[in-house]
């Protein structure tokens, strides 16, 4: 692609540009021109050399697939040289923030990583197409809705018939499943195997389904055996039977559709079981949180509760990640999530509380989706606050439970999520509009006493 066009596309990713797709149409016009030429009644055509774009000299660093870095010589020593990724305070003075793009998952073996970190004068939170946010989904009020009837699909990828892919659902219900149970023939739900959901009050939640493989604990590597989720904290119910003769509805999810059959007795009639393909529950409060205790921002893979690995080492079909209550102690660091693009799709939900990167608009019972390689990060208020605050050890996320379903698959969003739910936030882009540039080309590290 010509440099000039690249620049146009780049400008489209400015946070204040509402819709990047408009500028991308320039690409399409090029194809239209080609079509016009082919309608000319001529078979002898010759072109003079096409003009090279007039551009200023560009310096290069050499090597293929080498981890290297370079700074614009107009800024002293190129700001990439600072020893960490997400600076705050004096370290942040001549730039806004690091803007990493991850071409490989956080969990890939080091030899296969593909990523770059750039330093920007203005945080870039770009194109609209891949960033969606939903207000809290409504609980039913007028009629009784149980878990099965209140289940709606938000997004997904793959196909249960080829046993590959994921699906994300929300459920909103106000009634227990009475004499009704459900099982899933397509894959594993993060919530259980054959089940009947009883509730005490109106209830709302999120479900992640995987068509291939099963959830397991992540490899702990250098963390050792005592961090993150501990096997002993996963609880599987003992066998408990009920001997009831009555009409029971058994709902099966098969190839993406729900089928219901009735039988004359309770399906919960197991008097004993053994094995390890069993439903379980886990109290997120038991998660042993690992993080940086010096400086810099660790990738959220440190908060992985469960993962479903693919056949490629380090590439997950889906990771279930939480942002638990914890101490935040990193020095010189912009502590909220960095601005970034990720080769994974990130679906986030909030069970209760406030997510630090977006105190406004991302609400309990709502959701957001940051699709593959779509830039995103903290809203303007969070950016200003965390850029300027005095850093002391502090508790964060108390009274909050936010989570992320992260998948290496590119998710399609359902019509229900876009239109039927009535909850899509058309204004999501505006949360980045107030971001100001802090860039000062003239800044030199020695200007600051701390360096
Ligand atoms: O986008 C998000 O808010 C989730 C997230 C948090 C974080 O600390 C680093 C990366 C990331 O994707
Ligand atoms: Fe993210």
Automatic annotation (TrEMBL):
InterPro entries: HgmA_C (IPR046451), HgmA_N (IPR046452), Homogentis_dOase (IPR005708), RmlC-like_jellyroll (IPR014710), RmlC_Cupin_sf (IPR011051). The keyword Metal-binding applies. Pathway: Amino-acid degradation; L-phenylalanine degradation; acetoacetate and fumarate from L-phenylalanine: step 4/6. Keywords: Dioxygenase, Iron, Metal-binding, Oxidoreductase, Phenylalanine catabolism, Tyrosine catabolism. GO terms for cellular component: cytoplasm. Its cofactor is Fe cation. Belongs to the homogentisate dioxygenase family. This is Homogentisate 1,2-dioxygenase. It comes from Notodromas monacha.
